[in-house]
Design a protein that fits this description.
The structure holds two protein chains of two kinds. Chain A is mainly α. Chain A contains 14 helices and four strands. Chain A has a single domain, classed as ABC transporter involved in vitamin B12 uptake, BtuC. Chain A is about 75% helix and about 5% strand. The chains are: A mainly alpha, B mainly alpha. Chain A: One of its GO terms (cellular component) is plasma membrane.
């Protein structure tokens, strides 16, 4: 029992922060506790949540992916150029964008594995390349006017009690659910945790290190591509500077969510809660009206610091007691 | 071992690459090497490369020390924004230049101290420890400027960005000064050796009597100071502080400059002057792309190409794959990054 409690403690703390944060907001602004706010929280952070799921997998495997924000930006530009200038049907453009983004990620994974290079620097180069490719396509913000975009934006799942989930929100929830299954109930997930725990032992145990590395970066790229599609739906445009800095927001969400940055330990659900906490801070600042947007950055920085310290502290306590999950 | 300071033969690739890029620029633009004296200050494309390369070169000096300890500092861009915001705001409020400079540099020192304590005392991974300040730093800078782009008219502060000393532009003078002081600190004392020792193995260097926390805090503080100077230069140059965009992405350029300069990301060996040469190679490429009439958008792709090729040449896996010619370097040493940079100038 205590073992399970120990294992889930970071997740419990993160969720508690979200709940307490929401209660504070609701106490201060009576209109806060409404389904409308919840629905907006999910819609506004959908692209971030989808990207963060991919980042969680990468970090669980012991790596990092700095290219995701740039891939989102590139995807929106590619979609805008294909649909508006190439006259493509959006669905065909979506397919091409997903293949391109996934292939891009897989290629980075391949380079990381074959040449044994630090993921940090390979994905940094990937970030330059993806932003650069976006710029080369067009430096303008291109509006997307296809009728399907309007239809997709109107699509929503309505519940009787008043919750209205938009397509981006549904996509994010679907991705999170699929990711939980993938991480905890499949061979791939087990390989991922093993790889992040200790690469050499994983290899000796027969984990297909090469395939897993390529797959995890491919998955991160694919999800960044999906996030790009959601982002273009959300903004109705393609812009090569879109989603600047999202890689850091997603890493922050992963850390707040309790995933160990050295890999091998963490939960997809935690990341999802981390994304919601960041969204909550932003919504609070919007509600308040007198606070300026820069407080978001400072608040998130402080939260990041607190959660890193918390993780460090918990690990030290466990290690001191000889508790089992200290290394995990 | 390959831990000693790079010898002259090791430096050749970087200098060769710089010369190649400069020659390529000269082919594109025959007036490239023309330098004229006007109003007591040197002007010309070559001077421009030095002048515009100064902020990244300064960041690269600090970043080299950090990377040599097997760390990385992602917050330098945000620190530039903070120091610039403080300088512009205080100047606007009528403070004297010495007070402004002291406050800006103190801010950089504090930022470095924060990073250093997180890495050295709390033992947080450098990339994550400095991520905190990277995220929060721009918020702090905006807090200082209250979200505005603060402009100022003080000629005293502007002198740092656009003035000149003995006909040399001030940013170049400052960069040379910081480089000289840093080189003196690390090469004339045992500090450089200790930094390399920490980079090779923190535990065993601590066992051998190196005060690793002090060394680590010192390199992050120095990196913060270098970033503050770079922030002052950028702010003084445009006579204003933009908390959102000052130093944006420059942390990545600085890392690129250090890597192009041949310092290994795995720590333990560094070349200060070579990092500055790396910064100049990057700036010369930027200038070359502009002069060639190509869209500046190509800069990012060219940079990525250079980064990848340099890393591939450094990667131990590739060294193992390639048939080794006679008299080859030992595995793991840097191979010449000449091909990428000369290719980069004519995209």
């Amino acid at each position: 029992m205590t073992g399970a409690l120990q294992r889930f403690l970071p997740l419990i703390v993160t969720t508690a922060v979200l709940v307490v944060g929401f209660l504070i907001c609701a106490a201060q602004f009576p209109n806060f506790a409404s389904w409308r706010v919840v629905a907006n929280l999910l819609t506004d952070n959908a692209f971030l949540g989808i990207t963060a799921v991919g980042m969680t997998f990468v970090i669980l495997s012991g790596g990092i992916d700095l290219s995701v924000g740039a891939v989102i930006g590139f995807t929106t530009v590619l979609l805008a150029v294909l649909i508006e200038q190439g006259g493509w049907h959006p669905v065909a453009a979506f397919a091409v964008a997903l293949i391109a983004a996934g292939g891009f990620g897989a290629a980075m994974g391949g380079v990381i594995h074959v040449f044994q290079m630090p993921p940090f620097i390979v994905t940094l180069a990937g970030m330059f390349i993806a932003r650069g490719l976006g710029f080369v396509l067009t430096t303008d913000s291109v509006p997307i006017n296809h009728p399907l975009y309007g239809e997709l934006n109107d699509m929503a799942l309505r519940f009787d009690f008043g919750l209205k989930l938009s397509l981006p929100a549904l996509l994010m929830l679907g991705v999170v659910a699929a990711a939980v299954v993938l991480a905890h109930w499949t061979r791939f997930g087990a390989n991922l945790y093993a790889l992040g725990g200790n690469r050499q032992s994983a290899e000796l145990m027969g984990v297909p290190v090469a395939r897993t590395t390529v797959a995890v970066y491919g998955l991160s790229g694919l999800l960044a591509g999906l996030a790009g599609i959601v982002f273009s739906l959300y903004t109705g445009a393609g812009y090569s500077l879109a989603a600047t800095g999202v890689e850091l927001d997603t890493i922050t969400a992963v850390v707040i969510g309790g995933t160990q940055l050295t890999g091998g330990y963490g939960y997809v659900v935690g990341t999802f809660v981390g994304v919601l906490i960041q969204g909550l801070i932003q919504t609070y600042i919007t509600f308040d009206g007198t606070l300026s947007s820069w407080w978001t950055k400072i608040a998130i920085g402080v939260l990041l610091f607190v959660f890193i310290l918390l993780q460090k502290g918990l690990l030290t306590v466990w290690a001191g007691r000889g508790g089992e999950p200290a290394e995990a | 071992m390959t831990l000693s300071a790079p010898g002259p033969s090791r430096n050749l690739p970087q200098y060769g690459a710089l010369i190649a890029v400069l020659l390529a620029n000269w082919l594109l633009f025959p007036d490239f090497f023309a330098i004229r004296l006007q109003d007591g200050r040197l002007f010309g494309s070559l001077i421009d490369v030095l002048n515009r390369g100064a902020p990244v070169a300064l960041l690269a000096v600090g970043m080299t020390m950090v990377i040599a300890t097997r760390g990385v500092d992602l917050s330098v861009g945000a620190v530039m924004a903070i120091s610039g915001a403080i300088a512009a705001t205080m100047t606007g409020a009528g403070w004297s230049l010495p007070a402004v400079l002291a406050a800006s540099l103190a801010a950089g020192l504090l930022c470095g101290l924060w990073n250093g304590v997180l890495v050295a005392v709390l033992r947080i991974q450098p990339i994550i420890a400095t991520l905190i300040l990277m995220v929060a730093g721009r918020g702090i800078a905006q807090l200082v400027t209250e979200g505005q782009i603060v402009t100022f008219t003080s000629p005293a502060l502007a002198f740092i960005g656009s003035g000149s000393f003995l006909t040399v532009p001030m940013p170049v003078v400052l960069t040379i000064a910081v480089l000289a002081v840093t080189a003196l600190l690390v090469r004339a004392t045992a500090l450089g050796l200790m930094i390399e020792a920490v980079g090779v193995n923190r535990l065993s260097s601590a066992g051998a009597g190196v005060n690793t926390p002090v060394v680590l805090v010192a390199v992050y503080v120095w990196c913060g100071l270098c970033a503050a100077v770079a922030g002052l230069i950028v702010t003084a140059d445009i006579r204003g502080a933009d908390a959102n965009n000052a130093g944006l992405w420059l942390e990545l350029d600085a890392i690129l400059a250090v890597v192009v300069g041949g310092t290994s990301l795995l720590g333990g060996r560094f070349g200060l002057v070579l990092s500055v040469v790396g910064a100049l190679i990057i700036q010369a490429m930027n200038t070359g792309i502009l002069l060639s009439g190509f869209k500046p958008e190509f800069n990012l792709i060219v940079k990525a190409g250079v980064l990848l090729v340099v890393l591939l040449l450094q990667s131990p896996a590739l060294t193992l794959l390639l048939p080794r010619p006679k008299g080859a370097r030992p595995i793991g040493t840097v191979k010449p990054p000449v091909a990428p940079t000369s290719g980069g100038a004519k995209p």
